[in-house]
Structures are given as structure tokens and as C-alpha cells.
Design goal:
310 residues; alpha/beta; 11 helices
């Protein structure tokens, strides 16, 4: 089983089931097939703008070549999506973080319910397994459940956690977390933040304050702002990406809950629309189900021609 087989199986089947129905008995690509592809892409939550971009490129190719077989169609779809993800033949999986900076400070943002706390816990476990010394900062002081969950994950992963009383200033927790990491010689600090989007100004002010206190200890921190999105929510994930991008400088994405969704196209659409790289995907509930995102393998898994024959 490939890395993405579990997470994208439903997306793959959903897309190719629709595509198969559109092309059964046909020998060439025509307007009806292109319409069916457009419907299938939008159904996978790739987003209207990204879908129209892909369809326009396909139409140009059909017009230029005059004839296109179904195998060629799949190859071209794969190539066009690879372009949107900036995938090249030379691409190989790369380390998501630059650990030459120590401690490497990661600010984790996202609305409640997307799997943010769980992602932090899984990421801590992943980094600890790589031999990294990790500190978690429980700066979501507005939700008791968030702090309790992080404490469980920290104990499970064998990493330190810094917390304060409920209702404490999140920036104060962030400051203490980074100070503790420096004192302990930690490699990585993972700082949770409150998952609220009710007022973008409040969110912006809070994240700015957290950034400022981090820089009192680590002048070039935070080194990463990781936005966690729930891939199963489709277009809501686009809204969240837009709002957080407006409130702060998001540098990377973690897309969760792709194991039970036929909406894996959301990954392509968000990368295309916001130009933010996906660094992790969550494909299940297990501690090992947070995976480093491999663009090439993702494209190959999304477009498996064998599904056209099933």
C-alpha cells in the first residue's frame, strides 16, 4: 500500500467513478467528457477557480491536438495538477523543517475541530521518534479540553509541555514555552493557539502579540506558522485558509481527516489559490497517521489509471 492509498482512496474512486461513467463507450475526448471532468473536479472540492483553470488547459490541448485518447487525458490531467503543485520529475521528499535553527519554533493555528491539537501531538511523536527534543506550549488557554489533550499527547510522546491556568494570556504561555525550550536545549517548540475566527482583528492582534514575545527570546522566530485544515470540510477549508492568511503569514499547511473523505482535491485547490505548501497530511486517527506530504506520490495516487478499468 502506498503512502496515500488509505487517505485518498475515496477521492480516487469518487473521481474515477464519475469519469468512467462519462467516457464509457467513447473513443475520444469531446465537450461532454470535458463537462463531466469539470463536474468531477468540483465534486472533489478542487475549487471552481482551479477547476476552470484545468478545464481551460484541457480544452486548449484538445483544440490543438484534435484527438485525444482516454489514456492521454489521464496523463494530461496528472501533468496539469502536478504543475499546480509545482511538482517536477526531479522532486523527491524533503525534510519539512530546517533544524539548523535551534530551537525551531512552530506556531500552530487553525479553528477548533480541525484536528489541530491532535496534529500537534502526532507531530511531537514524529519528531521525538527522529531523536528531536521537543517542547509543547499549550497556549490555547480558552479551552480546557485542548490543554488536557496536549498533556496526554506530551506524556505519550515523552516530551515536555508548558502550560498555565485556564484563561491565562496565550502570549505569556508562548513566552514561557520558548524560554523553557532554550533553557533545556530543545530542538523544536510546538505552540498551540486558540482556534477562533469570530473576529479577524482579535485573531490578528493575538497572533501578533505571540510573535512579538517569541522574538524576545528567539529573534527570528517563529520559523513556521502551520495552518491545520480539515480536508473533509471542502469549501470551508478554503474560507479558513483565506481568513488565516489575512490575519497572519501562514507558511505551511497540514491537511487532516483525508481518510474518510472523497474531497482530496481540496489539497490541490488550496495550494493553487493561496500558494502555501502542504507539509503534512492526516490520513487516520493513529499516532503514525500524520505523514510528510509527498507531492509526486500524491499526484500518482490521485490519478491511478487502473481505476478506469474497475
Amino acid at each position: 500500500m502506498g503512502l496515500f492509498d488509505k487517505g485518498f482512496k475515496k477521492t480516487n474512486q469518487s473521481f474515477f467513478q464519475k469519469l468512467s461513467r462519462a467516457i464509457v463507450g467513447r473513443s475520444r475526448v469531446d465537450d461532454d467528457v470535458l463537462d463531466a471532468i469539470e463536474e468531477a473536479l468540483i465534486g472533489s472540492d478542487m475549487g471552481v477557480d482551479t477547476t476552470l483553470k484545468l478545464i481551460e488547459n484541457l480544452e486548449d490541448r484538445v483544440e490543438r491536438d484534435k484527438y485525444m485518447s482516454m489514456d492521454e487525458l489521464v496523463d494530461i490531467l496528472r501533468d496539469e495538477i502536478a504543475k499546480l503543485l509545482n511538482v517536477s520529475e526531479e522532486d523527491a521528499p524533503v525534510e519539512p523543517f530546517d533544524f539548523s535553527k535551534k530551537p525551531y519554533v512552530i506556531l500552530v493555528v487553525g479553528v477548533n475541530g480541525v484536528g489541530k491539537t491532535t496534529t500537534i501531538g502526532k507531530l511531537a511523536s514524529m519528531l521525538r521518534a527522529q531523536g528531536k527534543k521537543v517542547v509543547i506550549g499549550a497556549a490555547d488557554t480558552f479551552r480546557a479540553a485542548a490543554v488536557e489533550q496536549l498533556c496526554i499527547w506530551a506524556e505519550r510522546a515523552g516530551v515536555d509541555i508548558v502550560k498555565q491556568a485556564m484563561g491565562s494570556d496565550p502570549a505569556s504561555v508562548a513566552y514561557d514555552s520558548v524560554k523553557s525550550a532554550v533553557a533545556k536545549g530543545a530542538d523544536v517548540v510546538l505552540i498551540d493557539t486558540a482556534g477562533r475566527l469570530h473576529n479577524r482583528v482579535d485573531l490578528m492582534n493575538e497572533l501578533t502579540k505571540i510573535r512579538n514575545v517569541i522574538r524576545k527570546v528567539v529573534p527570528d522566530g517563529p520559523h513556521e506558522v502551520l495552518l491545520v485544515l480539515d480536508g473533509s470540510t471542502g469549501q470551508n477549508a478554503f474560507v479558513q485558509a483565506r481568513e488565516f492568511s489575512r490575519a497572519t503569514e501562514v507558511t505551511a499547511l497540514a491537511v487532516t481527516k483525508l481518510d474518510g473523505s472523497a474531497k482530496g482535491g481540496v489539497v490541490v485547490g488550496i495550494v493553487d489559490q493561496f500558494k502555501i505548501p502542504v507539509k503534512f497530511i492526516g490520513i487516520g486517527e493513529g499516532v503514525d497517521d500524520l505523514k510528510v506530504f509527498d507531492k509526486r506520490e500524491f499526484v500518482q495516487s490521485l490519478f491511478n489509471k487502473e481505476d478506469l478499468k474497475s
